[in-house]
Amino acid sequence: MCQLLGMNCNTPTDVVFSFTGFAERGGRTDHHADGWGIAFFEGRGLRHFVDHEPACASPVAELIRHYPIKSKNVISHIRKATQGVVALENCHPFVRELWGRYWVFAHNGDLKDFHPRLHAAFQPVGSTDSERAFCWIMQEMAKSHAGVPSVAELTITLRELAARVASHGTFNFMLSNGQALWAHASTHLHYVERKHPFADAQLADEDLHIDFARTTTPDDRVAVVVTAPLTTNEAWTAFAPGELKVFVDGRAV
Amino acid sequence: MCQLLGMNCNTPTDVVFSFTGFAERGGRTDHHADGWGIAFFEGRGLRHFVDHEPACASPVAELIRHYPIKSKNVISHIRKATQGVVALENCHPFVRELWGRYWVFAHNGDLKDFHPRLHAAFQPVGSTDSERAFCWIMQEMAKSHAGVPSVAELTITLRELAARVASHGTFNFMLSNGQALWAHASTHLHYVERKHPFADAQLADEDLHIDFARTTTPDDRVAVVVTAPLTTNEAWTAFAPGELKVFVDGRAV
């Protein structure tokens, strides 16, 4: 199994604090040492980093921990291989383009007997069940809409598609096109919404805390979604099994 | 106009030496300061870095200069914006997936009145003539072949497609799927093949030289393709106008 981290904000925000705790789980405080990845939207553009070294030891992860890339939509993943060898092409998140937009996807879980017919423009490069599921979702999205649908319309489509994939096993996933963050839980997913008045937060995985009030303005809103809560003193909400939520401008819609 | 750098090798090789000289042109020894990017294949997998800061000042470029990522196929680009604003989505190289392979493309030049009908699965995310040309090439490749063709077959297809785009202006480009490096020149492109016996090389853009004999084995072969020669003491060959060359395992085929 793997771990997922997503962030959705109303103003470009750096993910350094959350990523620092999350990356510790990539080989140090937890055993997800088979690679990692992170994708940051900047408007329509995308920065995408993947590495098959453990996140806790990767020079690229070191860069992310110290270079505050600001983004309104971030998806990160640390991998414990269940299907597919440890290789760069099997590291999440995966990226495809559809309707002139990049789409980023990461998955935690394990799908059994999931071999859908991929007859369209999206084919997996690696050998994971996760990338196969992503390609199928992109294919079905492309069939359901002629262009980028509204967030509400796409949420309806994704709810149907997620349920079909989830019938094959555990399907916790995150998806973003830079406008919203969709998150679906089969088992473990938690979120917190940070907003004014901002408080102090203590990382669960490292002896580090931050006073968000010092780095934010009263209008800022940030939603963080993660496999297991990252901080010990915030109110995290667990997803219900089978629940798909969409986050826009730092809040659950 | 922009500058291009490509490397194709028979064994995974780091691009630190060539990139160090090349990145200096991104704002220091030359005026290509509107962003940059680099993509490294590792097998079927891909590392893709883009930044809209000048390459000579970018923290991500600093990482690349010091972290010897080894690859058999690399494409890099430093940008001087002619069409499209300075934004992350307009930084080359661009990436798309086709036939279960990633394809990486970078362009130097300027295309006039190039608005082909993009009716298939490849749509530009940004606003450059370059990404439009890439999407059209991917579309036409997908129409010409049912799956990944041989290098020789694809070279024939690309020669036809490149000539059609080049009728709209300057179309120096590089393309790779991790198996080969295709390079097409309208105006400026040069290459060198490094092989045994390896010699000393002196960078043109920085006071740095390297003795390749110390870091290579007699079987290594490396081809480097670039807009303007990177070293002052090697025999660079200029492309003829309209020439498309393909490099496999470190040599021009």
UniProtKB/TrEMBL annotation, chains A, B:
Key words of the record: Glutamine amidotransferase, Transferase
Domain Glutamine amidotransferase type-2, first and last residues per copy: 2-250
Pfam families, sorted: GATase_4 (PF13230)
Signal peptide: none
Coiled-coil segments: none
GO MF annotation list: transferase activity
Protein name as catalogued: Class II glutamine amidotransferase
Record organism: Rhodoferax koreensis
Organism ancestry: Bacteria, Pseudomonadati, Pseudomonadota, Betaproteobacteria, Burkholderiales
